[in-house]
Amino acid sequence: MRPLKTAIHEQQKAGGKIRENWLALLASVYFSMEDFQAMRDILYQLVTINPKEQYLVNLAAIHGQLGETDKQLALIETLKDDKRLRSEQHLLNLANLFMVHELPFKAASLLEEEMAAGRITANKRNLQLQSQAWYLAGNYDKALAPLQKAAETTGEGDLWLRLARLHVSLYDWPGAEKFARKAVQSENLKNPGDGLILLGTALARQNKFNAAKKIFRRARQHEGSEKWARQWLNFVDSEQQRLAALQ
């Protein structure tokens, strides 16, 4: 490394233009040494000579490595605004940075735009991230579609159950019933008792008491769900008695 630094110093001393490949090589050396502060300084020189996307992305990554996430976000967002951010991974990094900085609306909007353009793959992980971002942004309605697409694509019971819970957040009991039933009917739901409790709850909230009791009796047979199932059975019985007394 010393000969390289000497050559760069001599070039600077002579007032000549520093060769880009020398600086790029020195940045790589600092990276291998995990001297990220020195690498950051070299990258600043590189982007002054040639502000190409890869140098700016590397500089943003080093800011992140050094805990300078505000500078990292500013650089990446500038690249996006200039339409110079094209890599799927870089776009996903920006979405995750928005989430870290508690900007879920920006993350969700970015994911929606880039998936529509085909620059971000609409796979399970990315769809879940989009749904989570819309949810945290307070837009529960828009959180539904990406999560439903992820569930339909994978057939995973736990995704159907998450979708049912989203419908509960919207007090959409028919929707909660529909997707909780899909979760329960799947063969890969990790905790079937949870799905049965949610399905029974959705039925009870629609005054489908007899159907709800059948589901809660099934839930009672699953470890970890017995207590909730008993409580709901007691609630349903009391509701049936209360409504009968009003007639």
What is the topology?
Layout: H1 2-13, H2 20-32, H3 36-49, H4 53-65, H5 69-81, H6 88-100, H7 104-116, H8 124-136, H9 140-154, H10 157-169, H11 173-185, H12 192-205, H13 209-219, H14 226-246
Helix pairs in contact: 2-3, 3-4, 4-5, 5-6, 6-7, 7-8, 8-9, 9-10, 10-11, 10-12, 11-12, 12-13, 12-14, 13-14
Would you write up a description of this structure?
By secondary structure, the protein is an all-alpha fold. The chain folds into 3 domains: 1-82, Serine Threonine Protein Phosphatase 5, Tetratricopeptide repeat; 86-154, Serine Threonine Protein Phosphatase 5, Tetratricopeptide repeat (Alpha Horseshoe), CATH 1.25.40; 167-247, Serine Threonine Protein Phosphatase 5, Tetratricopeptide repeat (Alpha Horseshoe), CATH 1.25.40. It is built from 14 helices and no strands. Helix 3 runs antiparallel to helix 4, helix 10 (157-169) runs antiparallel to helix 11 (173-185) and helix 13 (209-219) runs antiparallel to helix 14. The longest helix is centred in the last third of the chain and has 21 residues, at 226-246. The termini are far apart. The mean pLDDT is 88.
